[in-house]
Design goal:
There is one protein chain. This protein is of the alpha/beta class. It has two domains: 3-168, NAD(P)-binding Rossmann-like Domain (Rossmann fold), CATH 3.40.50.720; 173-294, N-(1-d-carboxylethyl)-l-norvaline Dehydrogenase, domain 2, CATH 1.10.1040.10. The chain has 13 helices and nine strands. The chain has helices at 15-26, 38-46, 55-59, 72-80, 103-114, 128-133, 145-158, 171-199, 204-211, 219-229, 239-256, 261-278, 286-294, and strands spanning 3-11, 29-34, 50-51, 64-67, 94-97, 119-122, 125-126, 137-141, 159-164. The strands form two sheets. Strands 3-2-1-4-5-6 form a six-stranded parallel sheet, sandwiched between helices. Helix 8 (171-199) runs parallel beside helix 13. The longest helix is centred in the middle third of the chain and has 29 residues, at 171-199. The protein is globular, with a radius of gyration of 20 Å.
Length: 300
């Protein structure tokens, strides 16, 4: 049963946002949501949520506004664009930003919103669509004590693990970029290894069995290789996500004059996969790129 005193808004009902909105509903929140896809909004309304036409309508009267969009540009538009959430949020409400972005941009957005009397919690998440749906995401969050206090009931509904990483927005974003550096490198390495195994004529399911029980395993190998084995490249996480995220890593590193050659090599593989027409396909499609270049035979 919903509790009208727990009011939330979710901006973005993609594979992650829809699961997060569902977790809030199960926890008893009254939830309004909007998305550019009207079918996603209709599904959410059927599940018991309230459809909203835009971020302002969703955020009106909400204690917590959870933004689940792709990047900093979209986050700024959600807050300050036409029919943006910032002016509609009650004073003292908290904006929970879950997009992956440069920490400097997170700090700038936070300062702009907090100047209006609202709170900003920098809270990128990790875990994928399945964990979003069951309320088991990991949040890498930073912000003021007041922002955490206001957001905590909603975070408890959506998170299996909550890391409180500092009292200033931007710190959560920085932690997320370290995660994304590793995640992108691990996906690219897993795809390279599986295409190489295929080139050797190995039984790929046997390769998966052996590697997941050996020192070469990683969470990304274990999670993404089944997509290759099943020839299922429907986008759980798209190639272009890592074009964006590893691009941010490059920008951050360049600003610090810090070398990131392994991440740079991984970025090139995602860029090539995107350029080959796979940008909206699952990020395991990097293996298809290796197969196309080398003549290796993958399933499907």
């Amino acid at each position: 049963m919903t509790n009208p005193t727990n009011r939330a808004a979710v901006i973005g009902l993609g594979s992650m946002g829809s699961g997060m909105a569902g977790s809030l509903l199960r926890a008893g929140f009254s939830v309004a949501a909007c998305d550019v896809n009207p079918e996603a909004v209709a599904r959410f309304a059927t599940a018991g949520g309230r459809a909203a036409a835009n971020p302002a309508e969703a955020a009106r009267d909400a204690d917590v506004v959870v933004s689940v969009v792709v990047n900093a540009v979209q986050t700024e538009a959600v807050l300050f664009g036409e029919a943006g959430a910032a002016a509609a949020m009650p004073e003292g409400a908290v904006f929970v930003s879950s997009a992956t972005m440069d920490p400097a941009i997170a700090r700038a957005l936070a300062a702009r919103l907090e100047a209006t009397g609202r709170h900003y919690l920098d809270a990128p998440m990790s875990g994928g669509a399945a964990r979003a749906a069951d309320g088991g995401l990991t949040f890498l969050a930073s912000g003021s004590a007041a922002a955490f206090a206001k957001a905590r009931p909603a975070l408890d509904a959506m998170a299996g693990t909550l890391y409180e990483l500092g009292d200033e927005p931007g710190q959560g974003a920085a932690f997320k970029m370290i995660n994304q550096l590793l995640a992108g490198v691990h996906i690219a390495a897993a795809c390279e290894a599986m295409a190489f195994a295929a080139k050797q004529g190995l039984d790929l399911r046997r390769v998966y069995e052996v590697i997941t029980k050996s020192a070469g395993n990683s969470w990304m190998f274990e999670n993404r290789v089944p997509h290759i084995l099943d020839a299922d490249y429907s986008p759980k996480s798209a190639v272009d996500i890592f074009v964006k995220d590893l691009g941010i890593v490059q920008d951050m590193a360049r600003a610090e004059k810090y070398p990131v050659p392994v991440a740079a090599a991984a970025l090139q593989m995602f860029l090539m996969a995107s350029g080959a027409g796979m940008g909206r396909d699952d990020d395991a499609s990097v293996a298809r790129l290796y197969a196309r270049v080398s003549g290796a035979k993958l399933p499907g």
